[in-house]
Records
---
Amino acid sequence: MTQAVRIEGLRLEAVASGHDIVDEVELTIAPGEVLGLVGESGSGKTTVGLAVLGHTRRGVRVASGRVFIGDTDMLALPERELREARGKLVSYVPQDPSTALNPAMRIGRQVVEVLEFHDFGGSDEARRARTAEVMHEVLLPSTPDFLRRYPHQLSGGQQQRVGLAMAFANRPKVIVLDEPTTGLDVSTQAHVLATVRNLTASHGVAALYVTHDLAVVANLAHRIAVMYAGRVVELGPTAGVFDDPGHPYARYLMAAAPDLGGEREMVGLPGRAPSPGKRPVGCAFALRCELATEECHVAFPPPIEMRPGRMVRCVRPGAVPDRTKAPPVVASSSTVSEKPVLSLRDVTVSYAEKQVVHDINFDLSPGECLVLVGESGSGKTTLSRSIGGLHHEWVGTISLDGKALAHSSRDRSVDERLRVQYIFQNPYSSLNPRRPIGASVARPLMIAGVDEKEADRRVGEMLERVSLTAAHARRYPDQLSGGERQRAAIARGLAADPEVLVCDEVTSALDVLVQASIVELLAALRRDLGLSMLFVTHNLPLVRSMADRIAVMMEGRICEFGPAHDIIERPQQEYTRRLIADTPKITVNGHKDHPDA
Amino acid sequence: MTALPEQQSTPAPPGVLRVSWRMWRTKIGVAIVSLLVLIAFFGRFIAPFGENEALGIPNDPDLEGSLFGLGKLGYDVWTRFLYGGRPILVQAFLSTVLALVLGTIIGLVAAYNRRRLDDALMRTMDVMLALPQIILVLVVIAMFGAQTWLVVLAVGISTVPRIARVVRGTAVSVVERDFVASAEALGEPKMRILGAELLPNVTAPLLVEANLRLTFAIAVIGGIAFLGFTSDPGAANWGLMINEHRGVLAGGQPWGTMLPVIAIALLTIGTGLIGDGLSRAAAGIDRGTVDA
């Protein structure tokens, strides 16, 4: 069969330093096939995706290799023909539809513009017909009224569908999707994925689906390529790779993937992939691999055909690192009976005078982990910010140990402020970039009135507690990876010696392996320090192993509340059922079981 | 839990100052400005004659031993030039510092206290911006006389709105970031949030703006001196010199005008180049590669 995409010996370098960003990439995609390209941030997966469009980012150049789409070598095309090819031969669906669409242009116009650029159909009539058709294909209405809307009048899922419509408009042979569902809720994501699957299958379009989330491609991709430090380390049919990963890194990825079934604990892997210029001579994963031997450090292992159609770059394909043999989940013992440490009574929160959260009542027992789950816009973050004293527009009672808390953190006593600590979603914005980590961690101690010498000692202790080193205290946030930053932010929360930790989507900005290691850390802290936790998330499987009780939020109300096991196994509410059904799942030794949406 | 070392941290990215120093424009700017600052402050020690020493007929272009001939009242042009830079530089610098301090405080306070205080402060700034700076300064001087401190005050205060706008504009986005919320959750005092959380994160654009304002202050203060508003009309001053000698610019003795004109022009070009380097560094232009 002729391949729709053929990438041969692709190497991309940083212009300034000549360091390899990706190297030795060999991939093919058949018409109608979806290839999942999986990797952490910085693994070079997006760079490869863009190379398929013949594009390199500023400061990156193609050093060698060829990218064929049919018989056209995209990397050899002159600029003018390249522009012609993009959109017609190959098109691109970017990550964030809210920034990819022109906010000042009606969506119908944006789709028509793509058609006009390639002179599709030859007449305005034909283009209008095609616009209606493609809108229909992506399951959007094609009424004049809808086409006249601006992007901001659409939901995130609709925006991404418009992105898909623009990409599919000219009936390209190949489509590159760069994490198109990252910002979307699970239900929306499930629908967008189903659309992608149907469109590629029915029109024979080859798709390269770039993602960091294994679960997403588990149900979508025919084959999977796993990238690490700029190289494809494993390639094979999806079922094969999932059932029996050949590369230790792939095994870690599987073990770190959240599992809603709750049959196993998640296993994280601290550390990060070496960045361009710091990559070793040998296997780039050897630095983090518990199976690594001297042999691994000698040279990057050549591709080995593990079995037909399965390529692995490891000297010991199929070996299983001990840590990835995940222990089964230990049922958590909830201690609901005790006197609550935090309790909410009839809490109603408004945002700019509009009520967004209504009549919330719950208690958090000492040592308990309560998970507040819901889609974006359900009010879960607003509620948690009210508890943290960061959002002031609420009525009702939030009490800590029976004593009502003031609305604003400024009106609470020092003691109250320290006992409830809030960990933010995005570690890239929660640490002051102009201040060393140590100084940030020391702030709660300073406020508690600890003297400087003692504070220094405690900062070191806290950093070690979160698996950083005391030496990290002198570094600036820029010098740390996302996972390290989130650890530092947690250390700051711990420094205050709190009773309640409010964790607001603390893993959503992080890679899968790092997510898992942060959840591991929080679970350990909770066990060792007896912390109570309110864990806000949209990712139910992620916290499956930690949760004692789950509160499902929908449109500002708690629609279902109960022990974690009951909620996941026997959801009572239609909404909860849908939420669980739409969550992409993988099981390590199983099959894909995604309901067709 | 296992504590695998999270290896290899990247080196700290160089600050705006260091990045801008790598650019040729900044180096040239710094060279020019240093030269003129040296002339303005230490030129008087190498001056061949006294500041108020009449040597011969006014505007005599070819006096023996006089480098650029004589100027008004028979003073040596080169000597007057060497003496005349300091007042302009000192006043421009002081007024910029004044504007910087007040503007930063107003900008930060406005950005942090959105709504009413923000509106009150920034609308006041807008009103001030609507009036041309030079006219504002001239009105003040016309009312109270041309004392040095008054010129500094007038130029400084009329520069405040521009700095305040830049600081507020940058700080508004910083206020939205989580580390500020984190400081609030800990109950940090407002002053500390302004000074320790916001201020360090607006320094890059602030530096650029301060530099630009210095350039303008030099021009305004030179201009005021040109119009004759100096506290001591007898003392040498570049702005004043230009005015005093413009009558003979085409009359065979151009140097009395040309020297200070060239100096002020170079000074503004120099500070402009530095500001350009700073702003490029701050905006990340000329930055090398993007990490994958």
Note: Residues 89-211 of chain B form a domain with the MetI-like fold fold (CATH 1.10.3720.10).
---
Amino acid sequence: MTSLIMIMIGNALIHNVVLNQFLGICSFLGVSKQIKASASLGVAVIFVITIASAVASLLYDYVLAPFGLDFMKTIVFILVIAALVQIVEMFLKKTSPAIYKALGIFLPLITTNCAVLGVALTNVQNGYNLIECIVSGFGTAVGYTIAIVLLASIRTRIREEDLPAPLRGAPIVLIAAALMSIAFMGFAGLSF
Amino acid sequence: MKTIIITTLVITIIGIVVGAGLVYIGNKFHVEVDEREAAVREVLPGNNCGACGYAGCDAVAAAIAAGEAPVNACPVGGAAVTKMVGEIMGVSAEAAERKIAFVRCKGNCDVTHNQGNYVGIRDCRSAVLAGIPVTDCDYGCLGFGSCVAVCPQNAITVKNGVAEVNRARCVGCGLCAKACPRGLIELIPESKRVAVQCSNKDRGPLVKKVCSAGCIGCTLCVRQCGSDAISVTDNLAHVDYEKCIQCGKCAEKCPSKVIIPPLNA
């Protein structure tokens, strides 16, 4: 149990997927204009990464490892994650149109989010079992959500500031993200 | 060699399983998506003016596709858009005629008297709220141009104290009609020109006192009309455009010359 909590906190804060491992930067910068939209994306990412970690773990343990196809894991994971997002999308569309509408375009966008693939590969690398994979995936996704919501809140405030012309737009966002990344390094002190 | 074969086989099988699964789930969770909604949205003008009464072009497209709104729901697009929407929806478009805003007041500064003791915000709605008379006539155009401010087409100008609509520019969105605190603006079909240019509901002598161009409710026009299209209620003539044939007899007889004659007269 303790190890699960450690994996959870470790993935959410210490090895934050965006600010420490630099995965999923594209949507991190692209969708963080509004707090609401980024929170929606965060929820969608939590949803998809948790399921994807479980499926990837099962696939690795029962298909890839027995056949000695370790080297094919990247391609297989991409394939499975893309299909999984499609299935989740169709499932949500049918069963709960409200959630589907709230997530909107973000759900298909996650297909191309490298954080999802990154988590699946890291899990395998660390030799996690199924439960650990799910917890690790969930923790990572929570870390992603924390990071993107924080950046979105910073950006909504930056927008109202009178910035020097060269910093307006993307430059100040990158600087803000860099400062956040440095701040998150502080969590490394929580040595587990 | 063996590795290559195993790899190919396993990946192929995974691909087929995933593909088959997607097809199966795709069929099982199939949701009827109305493609017509997107098609309708494409042909709408897209300026989101809200004249149709819906939140915007997206909302009205959804309503048209769902059958909740008629194919001619967009008053701005006019006959051309209605035809295209009708084709998408498989309905032969009933010709929705373009409507044009018309200011039912003729009381410019020459014919009415301006009391001029309103000194507040230069806005019609503020003036009406303040309750201080701007002109002698309690029904006429105030001339501060609240309609001018809301017009998306810059089709309205205030000339000599009365708002005037540029017929060529007006798209019939009706925003001015909603903005006018005195409800002076009416949407009239484009082909019709005969219109009563007054909104004063007072009796004749009172109207004459405040404005020399007002409708006095004499009913001479009603007697002239052969198609029963003009009526006088509350001492004010009004044209029914369903019946009006644009003969212009009413305009000829009007003693105050408050009825606009037809275009070809």
Note: Chain B touches chain A through 16 residues (CB under 8 Å).
